[in-house]
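yo, Methyltransferase small domain-containing protein is done. seq:
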Amino acid sequence: MAGADWIDDITVQTTKQLTTTGGTVWNAARRCAGYLEHEATIIGLDRPGVRVLELGAGCGLLGLLVARNTPAAHLPHMASVTTCACSDLVYNSAGVMGFPRVLAALTQPPNSTTEQQQPQQQQQQQQQTVMYYAHTKHRFDAMDVDLFEQLQRLGLCVAEVVEAGQELPPASPPPFSSLYPEMRCAVFRISRPAAAGDEDAA
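structure:
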């Protein structure tokens, strides 16, 4: 069930023309924000103490909307993230190789907890970090192929997700099979495989 509509009163303005990718609010950022808004309760964004990190914030619209509308969430230390969000971070070879490695590190489960830690701290550490990544398909076909191969090679589970009650759109054509393929913004849930007997941890 969807929660309350988010307040969208944030305006991003620049004082001069920016030529970098971080100087533009991309459609994928709004697509990811729309998914998080609709699924906030289901994925736990309104859970007290949830720790949300936006990667590659650029103009920061996505992170600002999350902060504006989920007062229970707060900025985490890198070692205690429970939810990550980002959009269209792969546009060169460095991103193809580096981005999956960052996700693999962020979703790596903690090794252990100490006796001195409070139960709440232990519970936060045991929660699996999940990434919601909005990606414009067919923007760079060659990079798309390498990106998803790299995510799979690192042992990460990748699945396209849509809002509850909606059906997944038809599968996109294979890379390089169309001269002008539709560049559709898709939201992917990226996580580690659930451990045996712990399927509900995600």
